[in-house]
């Protein structure tokens, strides 16, 4: 029992000793309080919690019991869940750590002040001097990089600005040209329209004549066929007549059924010439023509009704007539050639004879003018697209000094284990398996997306190839200052969300500014 | 999956197109959409229904029952029970009734005579051989034989028909076995001599053939619980806590399976099985444990006793005409009919009784009770280091970081990816320097690769499960072609255990613990994604006989290995997905591959409660949900749920976005940090509960009825639960909630709202704030809860931190509570290095209230520098004038305190009293 009491009594004593014994540079202020707040912890006064919520006797500061809601009465113990402990870290950077780091058996401050050996049993070595030296070394190294990088950034900027200027300047020049060309094009267009009007008129006159001729020709051919088919010459084509036409055997079963033949009566009992001309002439003619691919003899046999020897002769004549027509077809224009090719499939009656030399001349002249017009249009669109390119180039944000402009479209690669990663600035990001499968898109340029005060510290590429059971691939590119632009890190922290680290002089800040922050830290 | 979704969209589009759609068309489209939605969750066609399992079908609907009766001449009574022969037209059986220590009766049924084959008995589930108890007053007459237990229960075996009735000390009939006469016992037969029924000698399912060389040997038995309306237990199912009648649906199925994207609210099998049913009513709590490791189906029915065959008996003892009754019909594919009746009579009794049968969860290392951070997968050592640092940077405590399968070299367990995890020991050191642990996965499937020493050695030794032809069984799993270790063989268990030894598992030390997954076993190429039933195990058992203990056997081996590797000094932690009754002796369990949606968050409570009452206390669901991306609100709520789950681990599927807490908005991250810190502040309480469980079998988290069995209002409560006896929590599992109503159980209890000290009487519903950062928590009047209010980076760093006690007075101004402390890590507590102390608050007189501490276990000698830094007394209805601390009766020390009148609080400032000392605090009014 006696032993118990003494050890209980020891507790507050111990705490006092600790504060007195090892001040780690806190001087007269309580342990864990930064110099800037020393005036708020005056031994003579009661202590007012820094949020003003409560006033407590000064003895209760750092007595290992949390009195203040804001945790400010226990800057040197772990009593307050929301408190902060300030380590001075002489020779290195001072810092604030959460109170939970005080006496938790882990050395967090380089001066070891967060662990009190009397309480946690942990004696932390003071390593601030070493850390300071290392930090200064690293800072020097960093400064070198930044200095060199910043110089290179100036070059990049110069180059970038030139590019931007070229593009901007070029656009004005091109825009002027565009105006002239536009006028020229309009002129050509007017001319072209006039010529086309003229051409159209000339053709129409001749076409009308041809149309009439063709009608006559057609009727003649129809009459001829009608007579051939009308086997009993009663001026009517009946089912029986049709059944004699071998060519109508659509299913090629060697006989013409009623159904097959009926198709050509078009719902009528029989066909007189007018009905035949109107309805049946074209289809029957087409059917019979299809058989032309067969040798002539066979066609004759097919078409010919055996009893009627002369039909074969007639058909033969028809054939030669067609051939003649084809031979005579002029091939002056593409248009006509096309028409002719179609005509082969359709009806050779549509193939017209050539236009008169006068008309053909007009056609030729019109073609000439049309050519000139389309050349003007092409030139115009070329210039327009150049302008568009330049304008879109200018649309990108190349940073305050345009240093990123010269890197646009440049690609950087990194091979890590199984994959080669590629980043094309302002364009896309991709990944390729070493074993040579095709490239997988990890995203297309989206935007700069650094924090507000440091926008140019990262880029986002998205809408890459979709992941099975997941999102579209995307890449977040973090950018840091480096002497060369290079891709140094590529990871996939979440499935299909990639993280790249790119070093570039374009991200190097003025070393003069660095100097300031360096001095304020150490 | 997206393909199916597109179908759905198309259907919706079509509905839009058609201007006039008949109601019927709309309904059928709706049903179609519903069906499509179901497809997204689980492919039901992969898994059997009872109808598709020949034995289940035969037992469930028996056109002709066997009608067993006891041969009166065969009845033998001995000191601890009865034996007899049952006869029927089908076959004869022998029955044995044995009274076991602490009010448990075992009923064992086997074939009479010499069966063609032995039947498997999963004795591994039992924590040693149960101790027999002498019966009192054994009797026999021509109709029945009976005995009485020392606790006054009477067990009567009725001869014709065969039936066993259990009466409690108030002479009420509480259990009746075979009252539905469904006992069916398929004896082994000679092949060829007996054609058998459909599916007796062969079955096919999903393109897999079960060759059944020994035919069917199924068993089934019904148990009725008389006077009960509620049954619980039978984990693992994603279903309500109170078991539902299965009369018009599928029976609950217990067949350990790896179910991809499991669906909620049905009795389909999941990863683990505990064939144990609990019945509770205001005066009696009983349980029935069916010890069988084969595929098991359980039909549940609710009825009224006086309408059944028991009408005459019930009438004799019950005044009421309308006695409720619940029936459970156990059906197993092979093995014995072995039933343990656990007779209570109160909830605490059945927890203890069941625990004495199957064992308790031994005291776990403290870190395992804290927060775990997992993901499939942390990519490499840098990633691990980043996450480790991230928690510190954002001042969020974390105790264990987990590595899923990708950490291995080609899914060869016990190896490391040579590029991504080239320096595992350094990685572990990085974690342990912050008091943290690493947990790696090792699954039972072994990659078929001659260059993999484990594969090669096990092959040479013949350590794999065999197929029906006698060759090594081969299936597909993560590594591709894989073989499965046969843990039925003790030599294999030793071999597996030795894989964890530091000289075998290179790059590990005591700060690495283990996760055993896929141990149902999962066989991607197998029937129902598991092993063929005719596969053959050591001892000439078929896989069908032992299926449900396969994962359990693996974890037993792992446990052995982890203890051996550290010379039996360090307590191991093992997480398992598959489990069986008894798994708690070696492992914690999580609810497997859940999904990031609110329904899955909600179902985690009934799932955890079912496991908890079935003896497996260290349980939890993946925080955030495994499948699918989680939104911020759901994640916050899930962390709040996790903070009050016995096992607290965040996890995510490899296809999900990263989820570390700092990747979310500040309000969300702050809410998550608060939830985790809340967990850490309650760690002394949780740890004490784990200790107490290991002594009493009491679950860590509890259904309300376990503390308030007389309060029938709370019998189906599954939105709120208790942590120990002192905390009630109602985690928010609904979206966009700012307030919530909840039920406070008990009669004339007082509850204190944890966050604002408001006093709430019970029983009754209360309406409380539940904004995103709020977890509704209540302290029960009459309890004292120890906490630690200094959030550290990990639990190990809190070992010397002082305690804050929360005293909650009941209506009689009384409260008590306990604390258990030890080093949190080693087995030294087995040699006295622990402390178990009690605190009591009471009204001594109108003028003095006292808080005293008392050593509850003088064998505990642990004496840490841990003291009480603050005591908060809730429910103070007097005016304290001064407060004194006494270590002895003579030297009082004045203590400062604050009396907050409007909140009825006293806050005693810095008592400074050591937790391992006797002291008394007097509060004078």
TrEMBL record, chain A:
Region (Disordered): 304-355
Segments forming a coiled coil: 164-215
Gene Ontology terms for molecular function: calcium ion binding
Domain MRH: 409-510
InterPro entries referenced in this protein's UniProt entry, alphabetically: EF-hand-dom_pair, EF_Hand_1_Ca_BS, EF_hand_dom, Gtb1-like, Man6P_isomerase_rcpt-bd_dom_sf, MRH_dom, PRKCSH, PRKCSH_N
One GO term (biological process): N-glycan processing
Record has Ion transport as a keyword: no
Keywords linked to the UniProt accession: Calcium, Coiled coil, Disulfide bond, Endoplasmic reticulum, Signal
Compositionally biased residues, Acidic residues: 312-335
CC per GO annotation: glucosidase II complex
Domain EF-hand: 217-252
Signal peptide: 1-20
Name of one Pfam family that matches: PRKCSH_1
Protein name as annotated: Glucosidase 2 subunit beta
Organism of origin: Panagrolaimus superbus
Lineage, uppermost ranks: Eukaryota, Metazoa, Ecdysozoa, Nematoda, Chromadorea
From TrEMBL, chain B:
Domain of life of the native organism: Eukaryota
Residue ranges of every copy of the Glycoside hydrolase family 31 N-terminal domain listed in the record: 95-299
Record InterPro entries: DUF5110, Gal_mutarotase_sf_dom, GH, Glyco_hydro_31_C, Glyco_hydro_31_N_dom, Glyco_hydro_31_TIM, Glyco_hydro_b
Location of the Glycoside hydrolase family 31 TIM barrel domain: 362-689
Segments passing through the bilayer: none
An annotated Gene Ontology molecular function: alpha-glucosidase activity
Gene Ontology BP annotations: carbohydrate metabolic process; N-glycan processing
Record-annotated DUF5110 domain positions: 802-848
Assigned keywords, A-Z: Glycosidase, Hydrolase
Residues annotated as domain Glycosyl hydrolase family 31 C-terminal: 697-785
Family note: Belongs to the glycosyl hydrolase 31 family.
Family annotation (PANTHER family): ALPHA-GLUCOSIDASE, GLYCOSIDE HYDROLASE FAMILY 31 N-TERMINAL DOMAIN-CONTAINING PROTEIN
Name the record gives this protein: Glycoside hydrolase family 31 N-terminal domain-containing protein
UniProt source species: Panagrolaimus superbus
Organism lineage: Eukaryota, Metazoa, Ecdysozoa, Nematoda, Chromadorea
């Amino acid at each position: 029992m006696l032993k118990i009491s003494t050890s209980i009594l020891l507790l507050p004593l111990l705490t006092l000793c600790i504060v007195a014994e090892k001040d780690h540079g806190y001087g007269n202020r309580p342990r864990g309080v930064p110099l800037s707040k020393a005036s708020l912890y005056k031994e003579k006064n009661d202590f007012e919690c820094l949020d003003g919520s409560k006033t407590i006797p000064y003895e209760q500061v750092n007595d290992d019991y949390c009195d203040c809601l804001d945790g400010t009465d226990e800057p040197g113990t772990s009593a307050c869940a929301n408190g902060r402990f300030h380590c001075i870290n002489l020779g290195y950077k001072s810092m604030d750590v959460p109170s939970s780091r005080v006496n938790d058996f882990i050395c967090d401050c380089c001066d070891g002040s967060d662990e009190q050996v009397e309480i946690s049993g942990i004696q932390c070595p003071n390593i601030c001097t070493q850390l300071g030296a290392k930090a200064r070394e690293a800072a020097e190294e960093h400064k070198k990089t930044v200095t060199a990088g910043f110089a290179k950034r100036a070059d990049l900027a110069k180059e970038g600005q030139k590019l931007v200027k070229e593009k901007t300047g070029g656009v004005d020049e091109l825009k002027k040209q565009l105006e002239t060309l536009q006028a020229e094009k309009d002129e050509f267009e007017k001319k072209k329209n006039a010529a086309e009007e003229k051409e159209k008129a000339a053709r129409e006159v001749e076409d009308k004549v041809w149309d009439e001729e063709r009608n006559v020709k057609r009727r003649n051919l129809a009459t001829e066929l009608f007579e051939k088919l009308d086997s009993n010459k009663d001026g009517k084509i009946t089912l029986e007549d049709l059944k004699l036409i071998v060519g109508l055997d659509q299913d090629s079963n060697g006989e013409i059924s009623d159904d097959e033949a009926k198709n050509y009566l078009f719902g009528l009992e029989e066909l007189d010439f007018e009905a035949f001309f109107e309805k049946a002439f074209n289809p029957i003619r087409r059917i019979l023509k299809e058989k032309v691919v067969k040798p002539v003899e066979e066609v004759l046999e097919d078409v010919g009704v055996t009893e009627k020897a002369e039909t074969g002769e007639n058909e033969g004549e028809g054939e030669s007539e067609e051939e003649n027509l084809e031979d005579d077809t002029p091939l002056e224009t593409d248009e006509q050639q096309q028409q002719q090719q179609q005509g082969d499939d359709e009806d050779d009656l549509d193939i017209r004879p050539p236009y008169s030399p006068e008309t053909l001349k007009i056609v030729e002249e019109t073609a000439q003018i049309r050519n000139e017009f389309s050349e003007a249009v092409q030139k115009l669109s070329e210039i327009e697209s150049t302008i568009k390119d330049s304008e879109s180039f200018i649309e990108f944000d190349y940073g305050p000094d345009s240093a990123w402009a010269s890197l646009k479209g440049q690609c950087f690669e990194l091979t890590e284990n199984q994959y080669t990663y590629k980043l094309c600035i302002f364009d896309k990001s991709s990944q390729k398996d070493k074993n040579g499968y095709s490239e997988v898109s990890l995203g297309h340029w989206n935007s700069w997306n650094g924090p507000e005060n440091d926008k140019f510290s990262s880029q986002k590429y998205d809408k890459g190839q979709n992941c099975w059971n997941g999102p579209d691939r995307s890449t977040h590119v973090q950018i840091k200052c480096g002497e060369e632009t290079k891709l140094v890190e590529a990871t996939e922290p979440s499935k299909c969300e990639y993280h790249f680290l790119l070093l570039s002089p374009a991200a190097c800040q003025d070393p003069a500014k660095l100097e300031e922050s360096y001095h304020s830290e150490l | 999956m997206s393909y199916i979704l597109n179908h759905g969209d198309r259907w919706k589009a079509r509905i839009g197109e058609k201007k006039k759609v008949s109601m019927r068309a709309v309904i059928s489209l709706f049903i179609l959409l519903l069906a499509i939605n179901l497809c997204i969750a689980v492919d039901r066609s992969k898994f059997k229904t009872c109808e598709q399992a020949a034995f289940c079908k035969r037992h469930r609907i028996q056109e002709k029952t066997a009608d067993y009766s006891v041969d009166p001449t065969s009845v033998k009574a001995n000191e601890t029970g009865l034996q007899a022969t049952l006869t029927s037209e089908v076959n004869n059986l022998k029955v044995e009734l044995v009274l076991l220590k602490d009010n448990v009766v075992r009923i064992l049924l086997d074939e009479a005579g010499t069966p063609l084959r032995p039947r498997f008995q999963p004795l591994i589930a039992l924590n040693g051989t149960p101790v027999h108890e002498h019966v009192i007053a054994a009797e026999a007459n021509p109709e029945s034989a009976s005995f009485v237990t020392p606790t006054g229960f009477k067990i009567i075996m009725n001869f014709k028909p065969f039936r066993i009735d259990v009466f409690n000390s108030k002479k009420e009939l509480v259990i009746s076995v075979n009252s539905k006469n469904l006992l069916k016992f398929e004896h082994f037969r000679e092949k060829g001599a007996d054609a058998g029924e459909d599916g007796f000698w062969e079955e096919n399912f999903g393109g897999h053939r079960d060759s059944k060389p020994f035919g069917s040997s199924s068993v089934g038995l019904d148990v009725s619980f008389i006077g009960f309306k509620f049954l619980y237990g039978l984990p693992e199912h994603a279903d309500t806590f109170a078991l539902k009648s299965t009369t018009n649906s599928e029976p609950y199925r217990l067949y350990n399976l790896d179910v991809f994207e499991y669906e909620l609210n049905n009795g389909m099998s999941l990863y683990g099985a505990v064939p144990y049913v609990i019945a509770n009513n205001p005066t009696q709590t009983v349980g029935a444990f069916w010890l069988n490791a084969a595929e098991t189906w359980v039909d549940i029915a609710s009825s009224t006793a006086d309408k059944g065959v028991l009408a005459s008996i019930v009438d004799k003892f019950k005044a009421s005409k309308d006695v409720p009754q619940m029936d459970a019909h156990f059906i197993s594919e092979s093995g014995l009919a072995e039933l343990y009746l656990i007779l209570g009579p109160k909830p605490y009794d059945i927890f203890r009784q069941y625990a004495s049968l199957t064992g308790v969860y031994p005291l776990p290392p403290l870190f395992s009770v804290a927060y775990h951070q997992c993901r499939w997968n942390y990519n490499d050592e840098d990633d691990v280091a980043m996450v480790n640092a991230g928690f510190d940077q954002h001042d969020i405590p974390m105790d264990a970081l987990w590595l899923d399968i990708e950490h291995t070299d080609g899914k060869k367990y016990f190896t490391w990816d040579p590029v991504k995890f080239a320096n595992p020991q350094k990685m572990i050191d990085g974690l342990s320097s912050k008091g943290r642990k690493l947990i790696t996965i090792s699954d039972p499937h072994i990659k078929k690769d001659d260059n993999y020493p484990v594969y090669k050695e096990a092959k040479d030794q013949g350590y794999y499960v065999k197929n029906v032809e006698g060759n090594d069984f081969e299936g597909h799993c993560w590594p591709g072609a894989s073989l499965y270790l046969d843990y039925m063989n003790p030599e294999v268990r030793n071999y597996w255990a030795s894989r964890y030894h530091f000289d075998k598992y290179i790059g590990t030390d005591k700060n690495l613990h283990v996760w055993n997954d896929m141990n149902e076993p999962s066989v991607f190429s197998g029937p129902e994604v598991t092993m063929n039933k005719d596969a053959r195990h050591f001892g000439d058992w078929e896989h069908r006989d032992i299926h449900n203990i396969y994962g359990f056997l693996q974890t037993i081996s792992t446990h052995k290995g982890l203890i051996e590797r550290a010379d039996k000094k360090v307590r191991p932690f093992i997480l398992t997905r598959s489990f069986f009754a008894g798994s708690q002796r070696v492992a914690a369990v999580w609810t497997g591959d859940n999904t990031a949606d609110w329904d899955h968050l909600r179902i985690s409570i009934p799932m955890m409660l079912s496991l908890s009452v079935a003896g497996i206390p260290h349980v939890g669901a993946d925080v955030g949900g495994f499948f699918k991306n989680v939104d911020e609100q759901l994640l916050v709520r899930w962390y709040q749920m996790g903070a009050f789950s016995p096992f607290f681990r965040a996890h995510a599927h490899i296809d999900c976005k990263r989820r570390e807490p700092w990747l979310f908005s500040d309000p969300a991250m702050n809410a998550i940090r608060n939830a985790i810190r809340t967990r850490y502040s309650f760690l002394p309480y949780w740890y004490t509960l784990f200790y107490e469980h290991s002594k009493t079998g009491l679950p860590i988290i509890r259904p309300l009825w376990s503390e308030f069995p007389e309060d029938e209002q709370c019998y189906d409560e599954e939105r709120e639960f208790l942590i120990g006896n002192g905390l009630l929590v109602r985690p928010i599992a609904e979206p966009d909630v700012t307030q919530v109503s909840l039920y406070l159980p008990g009669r004339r209890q007082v509850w204190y709202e944890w966050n604002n000290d408001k006093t709430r009487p019970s029983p009754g519903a209360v309406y409380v704030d539940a904004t995103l950062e709020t977890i509704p928590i209540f302290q029960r009047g009459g309890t004292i809860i120890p906490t630690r209010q200094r959030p550290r980076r990990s639990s190990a760093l809190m070992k010397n931190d002082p305690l804050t006690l929360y005293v909650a007075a009941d209506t009689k101004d009384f409260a008590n509570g306990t604390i258990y402390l030890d080093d949190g890590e080693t087995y030294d507590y087995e040699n006295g290095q622990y402390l178990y102390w009690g605190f009591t608050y009471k009204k001594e007189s109108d003028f003095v209230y006292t808080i005293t501490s008392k050593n509850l276990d003088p064998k505990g000698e642990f004496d840490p520098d841990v003291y009480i830094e603050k005591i908060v007394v809730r429910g103070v209805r007097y005016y304290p004038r001064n407060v004194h601390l006494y270590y002895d009766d003579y030297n009082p020390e004045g203590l400062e305190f604050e009396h907050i009148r409007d909140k009825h609080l006293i806050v005693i400032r810095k008592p400074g009293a050591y937790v391992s000392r006797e002291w008394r605090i007097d509060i004078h009014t």
